[in-house]
Write a structure and sequence with these properties.
CATH topology of the domain at 6-245: Nucleotidyltransferase, domain 5
Radius of gyration: 22 Å
Pfam families: FGGY_C, FGGY_N
Domain Carbohydrate kinase FGGY N-terminal: 14-251
Largest sheet: 7 strands, mixed
GO biological process, one term: rhamnose catabolic process
Protein name: Pentulose/hexulose kinase
GO molecular function, one term: rhamnulokinase activity
Helix content: 25-40%
Number of strands: 23
CATH architecture of the domain at 6-245: 2-Layer Sandwich
CATH class of the domain at 6-245: Alpha Beta
Length: 484
């Protein structure tokens, strides 16, 4: 799998990278020594209560995207650079509804809203869960797009655009659905790589409810004239499809040198799994709740969607409201000093999805196990870290068995790669070497797919990953059996 990407110095690309809690617009400069990233605009994101539901303030979000592109244009102009294209990645499953005039009919619901729970049983009465999995390979989550759409009241004359595709549409006027994100809807055929139109029909949904598919590396179109004018970019600036599901972009930038790796994309959620050439659609895989999602270059991201650092960030939010604001490094250091073998929770429990006094909910979950967790931030933090590491190890072990693969190394990318306690515990519990970094894997994957589309980089995933490995600081953690 070793390879070297051919590069052309001077490629500059804008990556719009939006997560569930924040977003950035980043300039990526591609050269023979790797990719240099410069964040030119940061903005907050989060769920808000609108019209009786938990939604995304998409209007404000898109205004921030435009502001970020203006900043990118300004920075590039000062450097005498020309932005070759724009790529967009966000979280999965959520969508906006657009009418025939191209207007967003309402602010999009968030997956954290509970409305889709009641739609699960009616969907399963029409489509047996085993049949769903055998076609889509998608992990059951009550907020998957298929259940959200089933909760909608009236879709006549409307089209569903997943969040990154909605942003691309407003920038270009072109409606498409990027394939890596389409694969998270529950309406996508994992083998054929096309919409499972029979499922749309079975649920009474139009076959054209979603726009046609577009693959990473293909072009949506050029900026609309008024958008180009508003952000200060040339009208021929392209918007290029990347792995628009942020995990797809992150996995594309895993700096692996061989195929025998597992990855953990660690952030608000933890995406833990393997990269495969073909989906695993067995009943055993369904029962284990693994998902088969598309990756860049037609790969399969065989993974389980686990709880993540949302647990800790929500605890920090609660503690801050109570007047306690410890710095994260100090909190993790105090947690690391505690002895191993403390209480743990199931970080995947839906009980933890909604925001509300996370420390107390974690302590309550521990009580249900018959154990006790003291009301102390360090102890609660250690409980979260131990629980996540244990969950990672269990998921990797299950993936190896179900996919008949053997893993030699674990790569942790994303924000969690900076969490040394979590990375060390993961090495300890899995018994594998853990390579942490890059932190900005999602942005790197976004930029590299754009760069390859522009001809600034050549090669497949192996060559792109070699470029990441060469240009990124990585930290290695080896198992310490004395910590188990």
């Amino acid at each position: 799998m070793n390879g070297h990407a051919s590069t052309v110095d001077g490629g500059v690309f804008a990556a719009v990278d939006i997560g569930a809690s924040s977003g950035r617009v980043i300039l990526g400069r591609v050269g023979s020594d790797g990719v240099q990233l410069e964040v030119v605009h940061r903005f907050p994101n989060g769920v808000v209560e609108i019209d009786g539901g938990l939604r995304w303030n998409f209007d404000a979000l898109f205004a921030e995207v435009l502001e970020g592109l203006r900043a990118a244009a300004t920075v590039a102009a000062v450097q005498g650079e020309r932005i070759a294209s724009i790529g967009i990645d966000t979280w999965a499953v959520d969508y906006g509804l657009v009418n025939t005039a191209g207007e967003l009919t309402a602010q999009p619901f968030s997956y954290r809203d509970d409305r889709s729970r009641a739609a699960v049983e009616p969907v399963h009465r029409k489509l047996d869960p085993a049949r769903l999995y055998a076609t889509t390979g998608l992990q059951f989550l009550q907020f998957n797009t298929i259940y959200q759409l089933a909760a909608e009241k009236d879709l006549d004359g409307l089209q569903a655009l997943l969040i990154p595709d909605l942003i691309a549409f407003l920038l270009t006027g072109v409606r498409r659905t990027e394939a890596t994100n389409a694969s998270t809807t529950g309406l996508f055929d994992a083998v054929a790589g096309e919409w499972a139109t029979e499922f749309l029909s079975a649920l009474g949904l139009r076959r054209d409810l979603f726009p046609p598919l577009i693959q990473p590396g293909e072009t949506f179109g050029a900026l609309l004239p008024d958008v180009a004018s508003a952000v200060g970019l040339p009208r021929d600036t392209k918007v290029v499809a990347v792995g628009s599901h942020d995990t797809a972009s992150a996995v594309a930038a895993v700096p692996a040198r061989e195929d025998d790796f597992a990855y953990i994309s660690s952030g608000t959620w933890s995406l833990v799994g393997l990269e495969l050439k073909h989906p695993v659609l067995t009943e055993a895989s369904r029962e284990a709740n693994f998902t088969n999602e598309r990756g860049v270059d037609g790969t399969i991201r065989y993974l389980r969607n686990m709880g993540g650092l949302w647990l800790l960030s929500e605890c920090q939010r609660t503690w801050a409201a109570e007047g306690f604001r410890p710095e994260l490094p100090a909190l993790l250091q105090a947690a690391a000093a505690l002895p191993p073998g403390g209480p743990q929770i199931n970080p995947d429990d839906p009980y933890f999805i909604a925001p509300d006094n996370m420390p107390e909910r974690i302590r309550a979950a521990v009580r249900l196990t018959g154990d006790v967790l003291i009301d102390d931030p360090a102890a609660i933090t250690r409980c979260i870290m131990d629980s996540l590491a244990t969950g990672y190890a269990r998921t990797i072990r299950d993936a190896e068995k179900l996919a008949d693969r053997s893993v030699e190394m674990v790569h942790v990318v994303g924000g969690g790669s900076q969490n040394q306690l979590l990375c060390q515990l993961t090495a300890d519990v899995t018994g594998r070497k853990v390579v942490a970094g890059p932190v900005e894997a999602t942005a790197l994957g976004n930029v590299l797919v754009q760069a390859r589309a522009a001809g600034a980089v050549t090669g497949g995933l192996a060559e792109l990953r070699a470029l990441v490995a060469a240009g990124s600081p990585l930290q290695v953690f080896t198992p310490q059996l004395t910590r188990l």
